[in-house]
Amino acid sequence: MKTKNFAIAILLTGALSLSSCEKFLEENPDSNEQLEVFFKTEAQATANVNALYRRGAPVRYGNAGSAYLGPTASIPTFLTGYFTNSYENQELVCAYSRQLVRQQNTRIVSNTMNSIWDDGYSAINIANGGILHIPDIAMPNEQNKKVLIATSKFFRAFNYFYLVKTFGDVPMPTLPTEDLSNLYLTRTAAADVYKLIETDLKEAVEVLPAVTFTDNKKRITKYVAAMTLANVYLQQGKFADAATYSKMVVNSAHGLTANDDLKMNSAYNKLRKTDDLAESIYAYEFDGAINSSGWWTTYAFNGSATAVFDKYSIFERVYGPTKRFLNVYKADDLRIQPNQFFHWEYKNPNTGKVWKSDDAGVWYFVDESALLNTGRGTKDWNIYRYAEALLIAAESTAKASNAVTAEAAGYLARIKARASTTNKTVAQFTTELQGLSLNAFVEEVWNERLRELPLEFKMWDDCLRTGKFPNISTTEKGKITWVNLVGAQNASGATFKDSDLLWPISLDELQRNPELTQNKDYQATN
Q1: CA distance 421 to 270
Q2: ∠ Cα 275 280 286 (to 5°)
Q3: Number of H helices, E strands in the chain
Q4: Which one of 9, 91, 135, 326 has the lowest number of neighbouring Cβ atoms within 10 Å?
Q5: 166-184 per-position pLDDT tens digit
Q6: Do residues 30 and 15 make contact, with C-beta atoms less than 8 angstroms apart?
Q7: Which sign, positive or negative, has the C-alpha torsion 116, 75, 335, 236?
Q8: Helical pair 438-452 and 386-401, crossing angle rounded to 10 deg
């Protein structure tokens, strides 16, 4: 049994070692002492802030630590029924999510929620420590101090954003837990949590350097913060603000990766195999020598791949698209062509053995050097891409203007033109899109988000914020009908209830903290 509540747990993990690496960011819990002890020098502050890159919410997206269960951020997509885990008889959180029966299985689901909660608040505690203590540290470079504080605020906001989307109202400590004076915190209204998130990110935008993520040695930048803030505003339906911050990113040095051809040198293959592209706004970093990408590459195949490749002992389709989901693409969409986002056949060039499957594997996950030679993936995992900035700008500009302007249409046209195999230009798409009604245009943005971002775990966020579910046609490729989420049937035939919109508070957490309450329809005790 863990200690009384999350506050004690994060107190014990709050102090970090002083080691840091110029290229790679890593953390190592070192002590049970108060955080103040570990925020005395610039070196300590830098090491603690660097630790936030690999703790809490970023880990939810980037960590492929299990051969049978993908990153935690992938799990909400199973609620739609459009993706499945071939090992869900073991990984029951995936099965219960797809079947929409989490409420009856709260204890099993709660085990996953416990790690999300604990890791998130551990990161928030460290960030709170930086925000409180770094101003008192003597540093020769005042700007460096400001950047460390701003980075701490970014990560506090990023973690709260993940938690509030997952659980709704959550406790909101803004000071580090360095004693036992504030153990039992109640849930703060989601609207107030969002206010803190917005404030933190605005301050980060003002302070952090206006360069690309790569040019900033993969540290958080103005544009990472602006992109996150645009996402936060979009999630709340604050379209004018979302437009402002998404266009800050659109007009930056970041840019959309171009196709050199429509085969292995397409933009999607470049994104799959190349780090440090201008399209990458924020990525979770991997390195073969320090921290490899774990099981990512094995998720690209099914279990039969063990007979074809010898660098990994297990292959599982832990996040696999259903055939119905793949109908989201029209036949002339580049992203559905073989070896773009998905694949059905691969010949091992070392042995000549061939992997084939009737069910699509995810080509976007493949690191060929790891698959064929090293067994250690090095490809960074993109959390935010420029393509998403364009999509946010398209939707929010149109909604804020209450019209399909040429500007809004142009943003969406860039995404559609890159994915086209018909040579249709951005200008042609722009003209075509301007002929849509506002509602039809916005739904077309949602359609493109489904097509462009299905492998980056954004689908459930879109269902939550829009209150809509994408009903993908089983017979007509590219046809999507958006229906009210609550009351809709997911792709597995289960019907959404209003209590399906949030995840349960961990039962262990409820036991530790008597001030917490459970979300609707979930168990409050074992």
Answers
A1: 17
A2: 45
A3: 18, 10
A4: 135
A5: 999 999 999 998 654 556 8
A6: yes
A7: negative
A8: 170
- The owner of tokens 């694949």 is 343
Return the amino acid letter for 106: T
What's the chain's average pLDDT?
93
pLDDT single digits (tens) 212-222 = 999 999 999 99
The C-alpha atoms of residue 155 and residue 228 are separated, in whole angstroms, by 10
CA distances from 370 to 74, 203, 384 (A): 22, 40, 24
Structure tokens at 47: 């090491």
Helix (H) or strand (E) holding 345: strand 343-347
Cα 524 from Cα 508, distance rounded (Å): 10
Q: Which two tokens stand for residue 170?
A: 């959550």
Where are the strands (E) in 116-232, listed by range? none
* DSSP per-residue string spanning 209-274: -SS-TTTTTT---HHHHHHHHHHHHHHHT-HHHHHHHHHHHHTSS--PPPPSSSSTTSHHHHHHH-
Residue 6 neighbours by CB under 8 Å, 6+ apart:
117, 118, 121, 171, 509, 512, 513
Residue with tokens 């299905």: 454
Nearest of 60, 229, 103, 95 to residue 501 by alpha carbon: 103
From the list 444, 449, 462, 445, the residue with the least C-alpha distance to 501 is 462
pLDDT-derived band of residue 135, with 50, 70 and 90 as boundaries? Answer: very high
Q: Residue by residue, what is the 3-state secondary structure of 270-318?
A: HHHHCCCCCCEEEEECCECCCECCCCHHHHHCCHHHHHCCCCCCCCCCC
CB 413 within 8 A of CB 429: yes
Q: pTM of the predicted model, to two decimals?
A: 0.94
Q: Are residues 112 and 120 in contact, defined by beta-carbon separation less than 8 angstroms?
A: no
Q: Render pLDDT for 238-285 as a digit per residue (tens, 0 to 9).
A: 999 999 999 999 999 999 999 999 999 999 999 999 999 999 999 999
Question: Minimal CA–CA distance to 100: which of 465, 482, 503, 446?
Answer: 503
pLDDT at 17 over 90: no
Q: Count CB atoms within 10 A of the CB of residue 475.
A: 6
Using alpha carbons, select from 320, 302, 16, 61 the residue that is nearest to residue 152. Answer: 16
Cite the beta strand spans of 63-121 per DSSP E. 83-84
The count of C-alpha atoms lying within 13 angstroms of the C-alpha of 287, restricted to the half-sphere facing its C-beta, is: 11
Stretch 496-518: mean pLDDT, rounded?
95
